[in-house]
Amino acid sequence: MKGKVSMKKKGIFIWRDSKDWLMVVHNLLSDIMNDAVVAKVRQNVPEYISHDNFLWLDLIIDAHYNCFYDIKEVINSRFCQYYSHIKAYHGCRPEDVNSYYKNGIVTLDPQMFNQLAYQIFCSKELNFDKRTVEDAIKKVGTNLREGRVFLSLDDQLLVEECGHYLLYGSEYLIAIAAVLSEPSGIDYRQVLRQKGKPTVFLCDVPINFIKRNTLCELTGVILQSWLKYVLYNEIPSRQIDFTLTLYNNVPPDNIVGHYHPDRARDPFYYY
Question: I need a labelling partner for 194 at 20 to 30 A (CA). Which of 65, 172, 228, 257 fits?
Fold first, then answer.
């Protein structure tokens, strides 16, 4: 049996437009999750519907059709056939937004940012010696940052919960500043607020840019949300804490806009 993945041309998945994607999921699964199966689900639904364990649902479907389905694999496959892009947001503090439309959102280049760190912290104003900054760079490391770009499915979350990207810019430079602050207690992160402007870039990220495990996690959340809607009429929250980690640049053509938030919550000072 095949889902109705060709009912429309491929589109852009936007988390906050739940009215649209709930209907898409309904159509993508209509050949499996028909009224009879949903009725059986209502009779056997677990107390808590997890986004990463649908074995209970697979067993209900298996008993109905006498044919095993991995429902999470089904929704993941059909989701990727239907959608071509995912709307996501990148928070930063650029001095020139036009550089993003020229170069895209690029992965961390440690050599370039190390030179920037020396330029900032070895300046006449701060007067750190190069060895001290070099030690801070080594302590911070790049294992979890190099060659990656991070985007959120929710720009409101960026502003309200992850404002440090908007207020201070590069998380790598923030970490270096934090290490340099330790001996004296002076918060050198504040220096990073002197340049640039808080900016949120809107991106249409191609599905094939996203690792399979990330897509599986997302479609698990989507399936969880759809089930709660079908069973309890529970509308998904517009806010979601979900990060896309990309291992390649976001090309300029995939940046579709930007805006400058009036304010952002500073997680370092809780305001």
Answer: 257
Residues 253 and 124: their CA atoms lie apart, in Å, by 39
pTM of the predicted model as reported, rounded to 2 decimal places:
0.91
Report how far residue 84's alpha carbon sits from residue 82's, in angstroms, rounded to the nearest whole number. 7
Local confidence pLDDT in tens for the 271 residues of the chain = 344 444 455 899 999 999 999 999 999 999 999 999 999 999 999 999 999 999 999 999 999 999 888 999 999 999 999 999 999 999 999 999 999 999 999 998 889 999 999 999 999 889 899 999 999 999 998 877 788 999 999 999 999 999 999 999 999 999 999 999 999 999 999 999 999 999 999 999 999 999 999 999 999 999 999 999 999 999 999 999 999 999 999 999 999 999 999 999 999 887 6
Q: Are 206 and 236 in contact (CB under 8 A)?
A: no
Query: What residue segments make up the domains of the chain, in order of their start?
Result: 11-86+205-239, 88-203+254-259
Residue 168, by phi and psi: left (phi above 0), alpha (psi -120 to 50) or beta? alpha
Cβ neighbours of residue 219 closer than 8 Å, sequence gap 6 or more = 72, 75, 76, 79
